[in-house]
Structure prediction request, 1264 residues.
Amino acid sequence: MNRKIFLATFFFISLFSFLGFQENEATLALEKTNKQFNLDLTEIDLSVNKLLLAAENLTEKESSIAALQNAIEDTRLKYKKTEFLLAYFDPYNTKKKINGAPLPSVEPNVPEVVVIEPSGLQVLDEMIFGETVFENKKAIIELVKKFKKDFSEARIFQSRIEMEHRHVFEAMRQELVRIFTLGVTGFDTPGSANAIAEAKKSLEGVYAALNNYMPLIEEKSRGLAIVMDARMEATLQYLNVNIDFETFDRLDFLMNHIEPQYEILLTLHGQLGIEFFEEVDTRQQAVNYHAKSIFSNNFLNAGYYANLDLNNPLIDKRIELGKILFFDPILSNNIERSCASCHQPEKAFTDGQKKSIATDRQGNVGRNSPTLLNCVFSDKYFLDIRESRLDRQMLHVVKSDKEFSTDYTEIIKKLNESKAYKSLFSDAYPDNPNYLISTYTISDALSSYVASLTSFDSPFDDYVTGRTSFIDPAVKRGFNLFMGKAACGTCHFAPVFNGTVPPLYDESESEVLGIPTTPDTMNVEMDQDLGRYASGLPRDKAEFYKTSFKTVTVRNVALTAPYMHNGVYESLEQVVDFYNRGGGVGLGLEVPHQTLPFDHLSLTPEEQADIVAFMKSLTGDMSKFDTPEKLPVFENNPTWNKRKIGGEY
Amino acid sequence: MTKKFSLFLALAIVCASVNSQTLFDEEISIPAGFAPTEIVMPPSPLTTQVLFVGGVDLVQTTPTYGNPGGETVAKEWHDFIGMTPDQSGQSMGWVSVNHEMIYADDMLGDGGGMTVFRIKRAADGSIEIMDQTLVDGRSGKFFNVDFANTVGETGMNCGGICSMVDGRIWTAEEWFQSSNSDIYDNGGGIRDTSDFTVTNSDIPGWNGTTLKRYQNLNWMTEIDPRNAKAVRKQYNWGRQPFEGGAVEPGNQIVYLGPDDTPGFFGMFVANTPGDFNRGTLFAYKHDKQGWPWVPIWEDGSMLDIKNVTVSKGATMFNRIEWVTINPENNFVYFTETGRDNPGNAWSDDNANGGVHHPAHIARAQAQGLSSPNDPAYWDYYGRVWEYNPTNGQTRVYLEGGPYFADSPTEADYPKKALSNPDGLSTMMIDGKPFLVIQEDLNGSSKGRVPAGISNRLCEVYLLDLAIQNPTLDDLIRLTAVPAGAEVTGAIQTADRKSLLVNVQHPSTSNPFPYNHSLTVAINGFDNVSYDNFRNDNPFDVSFKTTSGDSSFSVYPNPTTRTVFMNQVTDVALYDASGKRVLVKRNTNELDVSLLIPGIYFVKNSDGETLKLSIQ
Prediction:
């Protein structure tokens, strides 16, 4: 054989076998992960059988109750080990039936209201660690049986999924978010508060999978392999030592464990040559997988929520037009009110009123004005979450007698009288001349602007993401209380601290708090606003949605007083006090479907002050939200040109 | 089954083995002069054209609630679509669009609603919306159907009926309410809750009848699309949460589908063909000796049709949606969209007389349950039923799914997954009848969307009605609809050149107007043959090579926008600059419908590369 050809062939073969080796390593890692997953699922099966036995044998004896509590803890830990894959592959089934929250829900997409009672491991956790365990024996047995059935059905489903590398990496990163937001906060351990041990078990599941990939990672990047190895060990060690729910330092855990690993896993995903989601499916997702940090300003994808392509080259022009419209009272019937009337930039886009002033100053619109900052990160809008699309949100304001009290056709007619407006519209929307000034362009420009109103530059964000290295210790303590003992973070989910549920962030929650009419804690009267129940959506006509309101963001809350849907509280101290007392029920009101824990949170005055300090540290830079200096001119209508930027009131 | 044996079974659930998975480079360098075999994917013979944008286009209104008539923004949430052919030949006819919403509006009228418009075929093959002046003096292109001044408001206009005989249109109101305060809905629903007295009705016995306002909802309501006016509420067909229906070619029978659990497959037989105001209402009862239909005609029963039907022992279905008829043989097809766990919803009705269809009983038994009444009984995917009018038999024509216990896998999605079929119509392609099936997912669990995806996507499928016992493999995914769109209704034009589809607010960032509720025409069906929709991999039947020496071959189907491969492999698609843009695993076909036209390189697991030019 000619030497040259031989060399070339040799080179080719060695290259090929090297690539072949990698393929084999990768396949091996996946096979191991898949096999382990199935073994771990079988472990759950075995544990549930023991749980059922413990439930059936339950007596009033303390030892019997303890045995049942051990059994549910064991089942939950077995579940936690598989959670990252189980929940990734079938998120809704896992959320509703396997580890469902102890709250009723409404059957989706059916023509009538059908209530689904909660079931699964969270409900069992709450019941078995409750005060009337023996009395609930029958219910517990039924719930375990139901879980057994639902789980075996879930297993059949799981057994047919073809696991891919991409799935494993996406699932691992998703689990890090879940552990931080739902795990260590105690969200899914309402009874046992066994959150830290469970978080460790979840991570063990993740790390077992990652370890399968270690030989391959070493091939690609020895440095990262060493780093990750050391980090995994350090984290498990950390969770061995720090086991107390109340004193667990969630900020430390976030910054030194969750965040770095969240970033490294992304790097590894890319370096291993594994395809990304967008190469498989074109749909936008709520979480931007390419964000390195949970607290980075692009972690959530505003375009997904607003149904907008924010990468459109015209987006800046559309936002600019939207901003002008936002501050222009020409949109209202009396040309005195604009969007900014109730959403003023310096007040974080609220108005400082208990309830916003109605048009012609005839009373109020019925509710407190919510902040528009980060409001895009929500799958439903308004305090009663009646509108699912941001671009249709404005329609409600336009038509309302108490707000703009007009009609789109009127607005279109008016805007068409301005050459300046026409040219702004044609610059921003050159593709659809037939719809130049239309409901589409008006609402699209406004929603583009509202989608741009994001705020992740507060002192707390600067600290978490490492832009600054110092923060008031009270803020740290406050964050840890918020995410732990005070249980704020189990409804106001990080990183927006609103009701958009992690780790998928695709569903907005509302809560029944039992809000009173006045801050008076002695003579307490319940606010009668039915909230979500009266949203007008047939699917919300369920008893447990009465007086339920959207969980709004806590970001910039220092600027948005007064608080609650009726503006009842003037200070954050009052708000924290309300929660500390156990909401409406804690105040002595009858609130049959209150979703807030009824019991006193036992927060000391110092602890309450720390929580307030943390919330105040979530105040972003408002100076970047400027007001237009002038509004477009109407050539033939000089009186309109006297209109005030942002409206009269 | 013994306990031991079932335990053994539980342990024996095999874990799916993983396939060897190729890790493709994120980028490949394309050397100058690199000239692999090139395959050309010609442009699709089907093109889309936007006709009507909900919430944006303006409609002409009649004087309503004391307000003058005029022009305002149309309602949205398009659902049913009807096409009334123009017998005069002056146009293609009138299109009727349902708005599935409840919304108070001073000009359009409260509740749901409809919009109608007239179309003609332009010289270039596209569709033109015609200017019209109606008898009531309204002039324009789009017209709001007047319900408020005629038969009373409607709510949630979802499905409907478009007669295959003459294009008569009925709209269905799914929003089943049982009190005036519910329909009033704090002023956001139907604001006039005074009693409604029926006047000018041509249905015997109904004139002068006074109904509570909420009772005047949930009827099939006929409209006149030529004059944009409602004609009558069809009180003689019963008050039900209607979704769909169909008129058979003899113009004597209307089949009816209510969206409820239980929902009862209904039939109204007219005394005189074409006069649906006089006749007899029946409910289907599969186990009745002889003709399997029971009459429902007690006095006063029209307002309480469900209980009467239950007491007659009718067959219970799990949410019937649309109904359609195969024009070749008059067989009736209807969708049963399913609900996850119907047990509690129909166990009472079963006790009171309603009967389960053997297909549901068999399904329950296969799930290890004694009856479909068991709360654990699941019906995640729904199905399409067939009714044979000559012998009165019903059978499951196409079962939804796959349920992952019997048929893998994730890789089959979305081609072989049919979940919660809802809209249903018939169209002729190349002289052969096809079902057009539209999904409306009830959830995203149980494989209704692929792993790792949280948002739903509803597909449209074609199914060749000549297939006696179709399976999911026979579904042909219609990719010529806007990306991410949820198609809620579809109907073919009389010239068979276009399929008109309604799209409901897609949750996507599609550019305008594809992010709105809209009516679109898919044109070009006259340019496609039956063969163009071939769904099977041509390599499996006859090796149609279009490539050169390489063992890796692909075959493009421009109509379905699918690239078939001669091997099952992992495959990566690189764009002209060598950037990896798409990866699909363990497959022998690629959906390229969403790719921007241009040059791509297709690479398989063995590293073999082909050039693909998408036009």
Summary: The longest helix of chain A spans residues 3-56.
